[in-house]
Amino acid sequence: MNYRAVETTEEYVARLETGADWRAEIESLADAVEAEAGWFTALGAVQDAELWFYDQDTCEYAPIEFDEPLEVAACVGNVSWLDDERFAHTHAVLSDDEGRTYAGHLNEATVWAGEVHLRVFEESLEREYDESTELDLWL
Amino acid sequence: MNYRAVETTEEYVARLETGADWRAEIESLADAVEAEAGWFTALGAVQDAELWFYDQDTCEYAPIEFDEPLEVAACVGNVSWLDDERFAHTHAVLSDDEGRTYAGHLNEATVWAGEVHLRVFEESLEREYDESTELDLWL
Amino acid sequence: MNYRAVETTEEYVARLETGADWRAEIESLADAVEAEAGWFTALGAVQDAELWFYDQDTCEYAPIEFDEPLEVAACVGNVSWLDDERFAHTHAVLSDDEGRTYAGHLNEATVWAGEVHLRVFEESLEREYDESTELDLWL
């Protein structure tokens, strides 16, 4: 296990814009406050969603699409640098009108309402290619 | 996107009381420490639960009831003012004895065991009616 | 409800080791930084998993096993002392290649990739037997 001490220098709460993209909104927040790295949790609802599942054999992501309103029951993620841009690595648990649940890596989703808590770290985190998983990881 | 810098002035861990209501317990904690606003994550188990799903067409919540013991696999939420009372906006992911999962906006649930981390912000957050979603939102 | 003010003295981000055990990795981190108590959220993916469901009638845990790759869509937990060892009480929401979701108390899981944020508290938390739930709880 690799770990690093970090220091939270700033914290923000944000309300994501109805009709915007969930992940892009978090990246916009990170850009606006010039975060070198950060960690967030969030909740809310979306109008549609595209989750990604990572196939550990082929080492490729496969999309799973939902074209219906869903609650965002839980959302956990972090902000770091990927190819010189801030990337919000975002996982989410979504639920429908019967409480049925769908989850995974959140690529995109149209915000209905979203509430986010972001802590910004003094340290910078940068993703680099990891040979064993073929993922871009930090540390 | 609307955002605001916040400062965490106090942090608490709490053990929710067996037999009490999950959300009311978090609101009691917020009242006890006189939180103007806050953010929490939690885990545990409940004896029953009422989730709410927000219908984005009719703009009304519909309840989904569970009368069985469930784990609280993840719980994310925040505390803010709503109609002059502290309101714990609480989303949760619940699971049963086969690992099947149910999630949404948690209205009420009878605590079996609950562990909460609450950060209290110096700033106050107040919910007000939002015309586009017909929800009470802050910022 | 029982609660206690805590103070975060240190924070860490960690990348869990591919092939190691998810919960043991978090406990190794807690050992390495000599945490008396802490709180974490995490996300990632695992190669298999064993969830536990607590039967509130018999007061025993029953295992639910998954022998397939799964995303860790959300993970919330805390570190405290249990029988003189650091124990990472870990709940997780897992998801498969169709977005289907499984959740509960995470006993063990083989890490594919894992990203954790751990806050370390100055105060110590210790679990003790609770008669009404037959669980080991703190506070």
TrEMBL record, chains A, B, C:
Residues 6-139 form the PPC domain. It holds the Pfam family PCC. The keyword DNA-binding applies. CDD domains: DUF296. The keyword DNA-binding applies. InterPro entries: DNA_bp_PD1, PPC_dom. Keywords: DNA-binding. It comes from the Archaea. One of its GO terms (molecular function) is DNA binding. This is DNA-binding protein with PD1-like DNA-binding motif. It comes from Natrinema pellirubrum (strain DSM 15624 / CIP 106293 / JCM 10476 / NCIMB 786 / 157).
